[in-house]
Amino acid sequence: MNPRTFVVDGGTSGLGLEVARLLAADHRVVIIGNVPAEVSQARDELGCDGIVCDVSQPDQVRDTLAEVTVRYGPIDGLAHCAAMWAGGALEDLAPEMVRRAIEVNVLGTTILLRETLIRMREQGYGNIVYVSALATDVPRPGIPLYRATKSFGTSLVESLAEAQGTNSIKVMEIHPGPMHTRLQERVGADFLDTVFALPEQVAAEVVRLLLLTADDLYVSGQRVLRADGRW
Q1: Rg of the chain in Å (alpha carbons)
Q2: How many whole angstroms separate alpha carbon 11 and alpha carbon 110?
Q3: Residues 50-106: pLDDT tens digits?
Q4: Which architecture, in CATH terms, is 5-226?
Q5: What backbone phi and psi angles, to 5 degrees, belong to 87?
Q6: Which residues pair with 172 in a beta bridge?
Q7: Under 8 Å between Cβ of 42 and 31
Q8: Could you tell me which residue ranges the Ketoreductase domain spans (predicted)?
Q9: What whole-number distance in Å separates Cα of residue 61 and Cα of residue 111?
Q10: What pLDDT, on a 0 to 100 scale, did the predictor assign at position 229?
């Protein structure tokens, strides 16, 4: 297998860390996150590269992707695993939290996918996997803002997938249910189902999609995994 270059947003913990771990064995992996200490720790643990980047800042995203290509060449795939949790009744959320959740989950997703697609269009190939959430399909009380911001990402990805018109650039998404991750710890036990998938199980599916070649079955636009743990 020829090594390829992958960027994993949110690769410092949870699902993103497991995706990066699986890829790092055979490929060039660059994890990105907005906390320097976490990026450094994950980079040392996995033996891969890492760059500090706030995806809600267009200049940082452009500079980060440019740096990846300078170091390793064209980007073969992006796993967008990062998200900001914003739980609680809308009227109880501080305006600062509302703004930041939208900056990360909406603006950040838009900027990261835009800049990645520009590069993939120029090179003529590449795979993008967006980690959505089962919550976008099944409303749950107590998470109106989180669900709304993740629903934006799902809508964006589905529209982008339809717009590609080529098997060489695939835009895909998965809809996992609750998992034992750092985000889940912030959510609390009330939102953890009695049956659930493990991060490493979902990571294997993300990696499978990232490794699809231009000649593989056209799956862009399909919700390839709508998982609540009941595989």
Answers
A1: 17
A2: 18
A3: 999 999 999 999 999 999 999 999 999 999 999 988 888 899 999 999 999 999 999
A4: 3-Layer(aba) Sandwich (3.40)
A5: -105, 155
A6: 129
A7: yes
A8: 4-175
A9: 7
A10: 33
pLDDT at 228: 37
pLDDT, residue 134, reads 79
By C-alpha distance, which of 36, 123, 27, 86 is closest to 8? 27
CB 121 within 8 A of CB 74: no
For residue 95, give both structure tokens: 């305006």
CA dihedral 19, 186, 86, 20 (to 10 degrees): -10
Length of the chain: 231
Distance CA 51, CA 69 (A): 13
- Supply 226's token pair: 């709508």
Burial class (CB in 10 A: 0-12, 13-18, 19+), 139: exposed
Looking at every residue in the chain, the average pLDDT score rounds to: 86
CB 140 within 8 A of CB 220: no
Q: Residue type at 51?
A: I
Give just the sign of the alpha carbon dihedral 57, 150, 17, 208.
negative
